[in-house]
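#help-structures
NK: newbie question, is this the right format to request a structure? protein is MFS family permease
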Amino acid sequence: MLRHRRVLAASLIGTAVEFYDFYIYATAASLVFGPLFFPASSPSAQLMAAYGSLALAFFARPLGAAVFGHYGDRIGRKATLVTSLMLMGGCTLAIGFLPTYQSIGWWAPLILCVLRFGQGLGLGGEWGGAALLAVENAPPGWRARFGMFPQLGAPVGFIAANGLFLILGMFLTDEDFFAWGWRLPFLGSAVLVFLGLWVRLKLTETPEFAAAQAEAPPPALPLATLLSQHLGAAVAGTFAVVACFAVYYIATAFALGYGTTTIKIDREVFLAIQLGAILFMGVSIVIAGWWADKTSPTRVLVAGCIGTVFMGIIFGPAIGTGELLPIFLILSLALFLMGFVYGPLGAYLPHLFPVQLRYTGASFSFNLGGIIGGALAPIVATWLIQVQGVGLVGLYMSIAAAISLVGLWFTSRQPA
């Protein structure tokens, strides 16, 4: 059906653009932002400072979820998604023009952190709306498979981001890359944002939201209603998403920084390894969507979390070998499991909340879980290496998966 194809394309393309914007920052933070924007006594201290700016967006995301969720539940999904995309794209483009510390001193890291905060606000309103756009248009029995399309935006955005950095590294000298080449992915975001806006502006409101609006007026303050009447579901949903953030940011941002800084693997080689590994995530998201429709999203998420607990135990020793094959295999396994703890969330989280609170509820839970699982992941992992060595890094993912299992247990009696 043409309408379904247009909805799925809009949810995939828009989310891919937003995640591209988010991931080029993570890649740049791992590769260049430390020495360019954060003067410090050592490369590891610079990397920690860059990861600190990366974490800022995770604290902005719940605020973005509250703001955009408010208007998404009161006005509609379409207008809110367009606004979030414009905010995210504007902040990303501005980073591409930002002078470095050598040019304007401490203004550089300050402005960088403000723009990173703006990225977080935009992405905080993106995921929940894109998931609702897909699942509220899904035919009966297809919610998880429709809900997997915005999830596929994550690997697509990652491939575009890291692929572009890889190409730049192949054709530019290190001096040119550090001087101006790193800016090109940020400047190129403007073209992708225009594409996302063009697709989304052609959409109509979802049938479920339109029906709910016709039946009763929306809550005056959706977040207040959520916290007063559905707090248990919101807390459990927050816990349920912790694992996906921990796995992703350990296997991508942390691994890239550690691989290129500590064990001195060539930047282009490590980016190529991650691009190969991310393909396993794309495959597992598709498998997870099909499996979740055949069973339930909760069951698939539980299976992924159990696998992640055991994977985390061997992750650190595999990375610590410093050998390309073990590193590729463990990153591939981690990101394959990521598909099972992330892919079904598009169907799982919205179903915890009534239609008129879904944008707020799904967005708030997803992004609050990002603080626990994602914001601190590269920072804690880097700190663990300094005090205990790389062997314990994977335990962060194991603990995060155990937290998600607790959240899933509390919502296991919810209809799937």
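mod (FA): yep, format's fine, and the tokens are attached above. Residues 2-203+230-409 form a domain with the Growth Hormone; Chain: A; fold (CATH 1.20.1250.20).
NK: thank you!
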